[in-house]
Amino acid sequence: MGDKARLLETRRLVGAPADGSDQDGDRNPSSYGPGGQGEGSSPDAGCATEAADLELETARRRAAESGDPASLSMLGALLLRRGDLDGAERHLRAATAEGDRSAANNLGVLLHQRGYADEAAAWWRVAAVAGSAPAAHALGRYHRERGDEPAAEYWLRQSAESGHALGAYALADLLEHRSDVDAERWFRSAAERGHREAAYRLARILDGRSPGAQARSGGLDDGLGGSLVPSTNSRLVAVGGGDTSVRELRAAAAAGGRRPDGPAGEAEQWYRQAAARGHRRAALHLGTLLEARGETQEAARWYLTSAKDGEPRAACALGFLLRDAGDTDSAAVWWRRAAQEGDGNAANALGALHADRGEPQQAERWYRTALDAGDVNGAYNLGLLCAEQGRTAQAEQWYRRAAYAGHKEAANALAVLLLQGGDSAGAEPWFSKAAEAGSVDAAFNLGILYAGRDEDETAFQWYERAAAAGHTDAALQVAMALLREGGPEAGEEAERHLRTAVKGGNAEAAFRLGALLDRDDDGHGRFECEEWYERAARQGHRRAQVRLGMLVAERGDVVAAAHWYRQAAEAGSRNGAFNLGLLLAREGSEQEAALWWARAAEAGHGRAALRLALLAARRGDLAEGRLWCAQAVELGPAEVAERAARLRDALSQELSA
């Protein structure tokens, strides 16, 4: 082998110093090292050791025989890799004296390991000037560590433009620190050369452009007036603090949609490349993207891979996936593992699991663990737990702790607690703080608060704000206010809000949407209104049951009409009882009809009282007829009272004749 060939081989064998970039996984290696392949154990470790010994012996013999710089450099590199610094230094200095740039680079690595950073930089400069990309990378890192960013950029750019992956990565890292858009180009360059941390960082940049990025930057009641609600989620399990929690990652991935194209699709490709090379955080993010597309089996595999590599958020995510599949016992195992590694999200999930199982002491233990891990949701969940147990004072303390830490739903829950205790003045600022922070429930609750003070315009503004954010009960309140205003435009807007409200399963909203459509003269509106009446009726809405009974009665379906009238009547609807009486009377069951009319009349139904009066008069029971007439006159409405008065007078004349 000629000298030139041996020199090329030397340069190929001697790698760059490590750059602390997680190139070897999510571990943090020392900033500088002899480079090359890692020396971790493997099933073939014995064979590898024998091969290394043979390589070293061959290099020794070649150096002794030829004494050329390339052989000395190779021998020095091998000794450096084996940790023989004294032996390596002698050979590297000899090769460097003869102008071997690889030897100069590795001499710098050796001196850096011994703590002589400045002398190491001098040798790296020699090698870099001679064209060594690894030395330029090392020199750039040296200058960055000392705060000389212009010099660092110069040498890192030299390395990167020479095609050195670690140099490209380090340059990208420096540029990203300055918010320089050119960072993406160099992350891509390093990633294309197999640098897995660069692939991960590139994926994160691309992922930040996806529709779910905004979600990452952050993780009702029936009735006319609505009711105060602490939160749409009774138990939150998001983690606070440094890394994005798995709950936020999953939400962001879901918000990004399921189509693997655009920036999200390219991000997925780079996540895959990094994950396939053992990058545990890339495996975690890949899992969230796959889960959002419904590919839960593959997502679980990546979560498992990441979790086994020590990523607690992946263990937490795997727990959620198992819980969603109904395997809460296995979910608890992974949550416990993640919680023990400091994941507050998992600790909260464990707390919620124990709370749902009726184990408040265990729940409290894990919520406190979450709080100790820096997760403010632990305080919020402790507040919820205490509130459920009637420990109001303790609940208020925990809510306050979380609210002062900026937890918007805790602020809303605290306001609800204060309002329930009669302190509306104390509740209002907490509602406002929570609503301004983005709590949809707090905005709705402010609407209720102002409506209770008859400040309808302000109440409407808060209802409208909550409705715009998807709060279905607020949408109902907005629709009702618009319907009170009247007008065709108000009707169209009210219909839009009612259609939003029914998505929350609100029976009142379904009834009001049916009633609005019932006003339309075209057949389609009448047909659709029956669908909404039936939805509300099946939820026990009495007025909807009566209206549905009337519609099916018009079609001649007496059996269905009787069913719905009876449902309403037995639930206390006087109109349902009256209409059921009419139906039974028409079918010849006057005696049973009288029983339902009596129930309706006793509930204040004037027409039912008049019907009973007429029925008594036909039977010849004039005294009873006169009594029912008197009740009908009292109950009204006006036309009923007028007819009942005439009948009462006639019956009085008969009795006095």
Automatic annotation (TrEMBL):
Residues 1-49 are annotated as: Disordered. Coiled coil: none annotated. Residues 1-12 have a biased composition (Basic and acidic residues). SUPFAM superfamilies: HCP-like. One of its GO terms (molecular function) is identical protein binding. PANTHER family: ERAD-ASSOCIATED E3 UBIQUITIN-PROTEIN LIGASE COMPONENT HRD3, SEL-1-LIKE PROTEIN. This is Sel1 repeat family protein. It comes from Streptomyces cinnamoneus.
